[in-house]
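Our preliminary data section would be incomplete without showing what the modeling component actually yields. Below, a chain of 116 amino acids is followed by its predicted structure, encoded as tokens that our downstream tools consume directly.
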Amino acid sequence: MSIYVTGSFNGFHRYTEAPEDVAYLRDKHRHLFTWKVEIFVNPTIDRHLEFHQVQNEIKRFVADNWISTGAYQTLGSCESMALELSAFVTENIVPTPHTITVSEDNECGSTYYREL
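Predicted structure:
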């Protein structure tokens, strides 16, 4: 069994080493970044994790680390953000298996699977 939470934020990034056929990605460009965190929970414990609390923690992380600091401008990829968000979940919420998906405009993205 798992719970999931989602959220989004507007941000800018660039892919400085983009191949020639997508050279436009080398320039700073805007996306609506969307994240989804799915955490596997103990099915025998009702509300093992309260998803509203989990969502609030992740929203704080995103606001403090990516939005207010402008750090998302240097992360460069959905993959990087998924790994960073996974580390936050592991260290601050629960060190159990989970999946993290970060996408650009709900069109393209990356999913990271953390196993035990």
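The first helix runs from residue 51 to 67. The mean pLDDT is 92. Preliminary results of this kind motivate Aim 1 of the renewal.
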